[in-house]
Amino acid sequence: xxxxxxxxxxxxxxxxxxxxxxxxxxxxxxxxxxxxxxxxxxxxxxxxxxx
Length: 51
Fold this sequence. Notes:
Helix content: 10-25%
Number of domains: 1
Strand content: 25-35%
Radius of gyration: 11 Å
Number of helices: 2
Distance between the termini: 32 Å
Shape: globular
Order of helices and strands: EEEEHH
Structural class: alpha+beta
Largest sheet: 2 strands, antiparallel
């Protein structure tokens, strides 16, 4: 089961449109809507090597 850390949406199995990140708390998920809303923040945390 996956739960969106931003809005609390749940699903039995995370769809490919959800974003996963690994932190010191373990794997965290963002649903498609929250991923779209936070895209600039997510891209801002990528290493420069990705660009």
